[in-house]
Amino acid sequence: MTNSKGDRRTRRRPRHLTVDLGLLLTAVIWGINFSVVKLVLQHLDPLGFNALRFPFAAVAVWVLLRATGRPALPPRSEWLRVLGLGVVGHVIFQIAFIYGIDLTLTGNAALLLSTSPVWVLLIASALGRERFNRAILLGVIATLAGMAILITGGSQEVGGAGLGDLLVLGAALSWASFTVFGRRLTKRRGALEVTAWTLWAALPVIIVMGIPDLMRVDWSSVPVGIWFATAYTGIFGIAIAYLLWSRGMKAIGQSRTAVYQNLVPVIALATAWLWLGETPTAQQLGGAAVILSGVAVARGLAGRRRRPAP
């Protein structure tokens, strides 16, 4: 029996390794994505940009579904749930995210979005799916303190508690809601299916909302590189990253998956520094340290409380 258990653990390691590598890739994709989005928004309005990049994502997940022989449509019994998740996880999230990053610093956006795991725990606790404990409370308090340090500097260079910061925070809450409410459907139907279905459900709304912006674009003045950047944000920033994230949630659980999100603001700050010249301020770095500590406390201690005894 001992050998059998050892063999099962050995067989699981390669699978978990690919999942972990996929989540590491997701952190890199999302970290770079902040600066890419910021660059594209210098040439395109936010809703028009979303309307261009979402078709790239929709085609990418369709190709993956076809290649793996997965069902192209959800069962009728899941349509309402898929529609709701599409609105929360794509329409609301993307609008708040795209306008937020347009109105604040790239580093602020990445740090505020990194708070979403704490809101996941808080929402799950409110729904009775997670036991509210001291770890979650400490994590929430520390995260709120870090956010206060980050966005209340009284200077636009730091963020100044502006509308952009508040919109990105709304995006973090939207992503947390999508994560909590989509977990059971992902376990039942699969990460690729849920990613594709919810994205397609949101696609018509996002395109219609972006048409007025697209009609005002002077296409002759848009550099070719902007099209490649738009494709990157759609195919990698949305389709591939969402898929790898959902796969991680299903394979290794919420706590281990969410650890990789701590890397995103670090990569985003470094990329913005190198590409956009956004030198991190002392206040940003202080806020980052407190925010990431709060997220780590909430997830780490909560995860240990859930871990079964050996």
Description:
- By secondary structure, this protein is mostly helical.
- The protein has one domain.
- 80% of the residues lie in helices and 0% in strands.
- The protein contains 12 helices and no strands.
- Helix 1 (2-40) packs antiparallel against helix 9 (224-252), helix 2 packs across helix 9 and helix 3 packs across helix 8.
- The longest helix has 39 residues, at 2-40.
- It is globular and about 50 Å long.
Oligomeric state of shown chains: single chain
User: What gap, in angstroms, lies between the N and C termini?
Assistant: 17 Å
Mean pLDDT: 80
- Based on CA inertia axes, which overall geometry fits? globular
Secondary-structure-based class equals mainly alpha
The H/E string reads HHHHHHHHHHHH
Helicity range: over 70%
Radius of gyration: 20 Å
The count of strands amounts to 0
Tally of separate domains: 1
- Count the helices. How many? 12
Strand content: under 5%
Low-confidence stretches: 154-161, 305-310
The biggest beta sheet reads: none
